[in-house]
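Hi team, as promised in this morning's meeting, here are the two structures we talked about. I've kept the exact order from the run log so nobody has to guess. The first one is mostly here for context; it's the second one we should focus on when we meet again. Sequence first, then the predicted structure tokens.
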Amino acid sequence: MSILLKHKFLFLMLFIGLGQGICQEQIGLRTENYSGVNSMLLNPANNLTGKFAWDINLASAALFFDNRYAYARNTNVLNFIKRSDDLALITDFDNESQIGPNDLVIDFFGGEGKKNAFLDTKIMGPSFMIKTNTGHTFGLFTNFRTAFSAPALPFQTSYPYLESRSINENFAMPEFSLAGMAWAEYGLNYGISFPTSTGTFGIGVNLKILQGYEGFYLRNNQAITVTQLPGDTVDFSGAFIDFGYTNSNIDGANFNLNKGGFGAGMDIGAVFTVDGYGDDDYQFKLGVSILDIGKVNFNNNSEVRSFQIGDMVSVPSNDFDSANGTDEFFEILDETLLGPGNSSLAAGNFGLWLPAALSIQADYAVTKNFYVNGLVVQPIPFSKLMLQRASTFALSPRFEHRWFSASLPFVVHNWQDFRIGSSVRLAFITLGTDNLTSIISKGNFTGSDIYIAVKLNPFNLNFGGGNTSGWDKGGKKTKCYQF
């Protein structure tokens, strides 16, 4: 196997492997009026217009992965699960007749367009919100999150391009960056609303303390000239590469998260409503929020390596066969690229910014129980040392009731791919996906998305019209500006 093939296999394992931990915006869980504490993660002012006086999230999980580097042929999530015991991954074959009944074919996107990969997982722990009838909301939330982003990989990193390079052929590897991080959030929410001549106006904020566990980034700062030579050797010249990582668990047989750094973050948002079908409801709601403003600084068991290479340097892949762990790998790499006695170690700490984004939400009440929601989430990439989320545009019709809701999001992912989602809530349990076809329909599988939540909020089993939302005994919510 050539060193370029090893490089391609690394990308494959990175993207497909992350998929095993495989939500992006959790549309069905965050946009309805019975979303409670979960809705404030899309807009911290959302609870001001919600139906509940209080809401408790017992546990929820959201798993999202998608990429445009590699895909699995003719499969879906259910097929993965069904065949997991005897599944065999294959990437190289001479003709289709070599593919067995239990073989899962991994193929790669070609062409000259940018490649990308995104991972976003969230586990929301015990969290709650309270809304007063004087127009204030308070909340506490806990999250554990992991994310990976390679938003704009040049096509020169793709398998088809690398596979087609000839021995002794020079080609340029353009600039690119990627990053990943695992961290916990401990957040406080506050919101306040004011009456207007047509409805209400509210503002909210989430303040977050961030506990960083693991993180890394790779940044290729300028175009590199690459040449593949015989004997599993590659020549590099003109390279300027930075690589930061936490190394506390890289060499261990068992992976255990360790605390690597701290940080702070915030979300801010506003909502505006126009009165609708009564004191409880709005005809139209518009929300704007900026999410994930913040940074984690890693200064425990962390390193930054910097490689600046002018003249051509040859790297034989078999030189690294004897490396036992990260330290020995970099000793060999430093000697090969920088010369004897030189070290690439540049710093003992680094920082990663959160995946900041601008979000715009619009909700229109067609009837008392039927709504149409529009959502735009656009990343704000202001640094190369940051995680980046994929963009989302969604139009979601939904039916909602205190004890049941259902939505059907039509989603454009990253301004590239159209997919259909689905979400159902039965009382206190919500289950949904923003990519239904990846679960039930066989095709070129690039990733998937699923979320689930178990909650507790006001209830009354008197279905004859008693209070079900935690407000006054007549079931009519007092408007926030009435005393």
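And here is the second protein, the one for discussion:
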Amino acid sequence: MSAIHTTGHRDARDRARAPGTFGRLVQDGWALVFGEVRHTRLRPTRHAFRYPAFHLRVPVDRLPSDGCGSALFGVNRPGLLSFHEADHGTGGRALAFIRGLLAEAGVRAEGAVWLHTFPRVLGYTFKPVSFWHCHDADGRLAAVVAEVNNTFGERHCYLLAHADGTPLRAGEELRAHKVFHVSPFCAVEGAYRFRFLSNGRRSVARIDLDDAHGPLLVTSLSGELHPLRAQAALRALLLHPAFTVMVILRIHWHALKLWLKRVPFHRKPAPPEGFVTRASK
């Protein structure tokens, strides 16, 4: 009886010392990135905007298998803010998806995987682009996968990695042919130029689009990283209470502006046959 009594007290003390939802997430490296989105169209008429924004940095290789959460933030569970693996890849387990994509492409990236993406806010999200940062066993950046969604419910991935397995350098320019329809005001042609910078405190993703006449679009998503504590989650909700709804509303608002400016309109083509497009040199 004494042994059982002692074990019960020890289990209670262990539960008391165990971190709560946010303590667990901070330990695993979850972060909120507060910054801004910038977008500039250069031709045939200049059109630019910038908005304050925030997004998640998710440690994909350390996702809790059973989910976790609270009313404020949930992982594969409802919350005022939440992350759901079903919103990415092919809708299954995120780590299995990205490991499978890289293995099929012959990219060795067995190390940490960080996903930069918009969360669900009040249960809703639209993710124009998310970035999977995939590292090798030595901690070097082996590949970045840009996962793009359009407003027609379609998804496509651009795999940015060197064919010879050389790690990606900070700020290195990576190119991929545009094959996926995003905006009716841009034809499916030309090439993207990607650049990524991160120093552990600040993250920058730059995507520019060139067509046959030169630079057409200049865009970026940047911000400062803050550990995903309750205070950071509350800050995100207070500053951006309807953030992901506003993402989709702003997309349509600026589409209307471009239409009024008589920017040429392109009908949506069929999606590409393959789910992944590899970077070109």
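Starting points for discussion:
Helices lie at 2-17, 21-28, 94-105, 230-239, 243-260.
Residues 28-263 form one domain.
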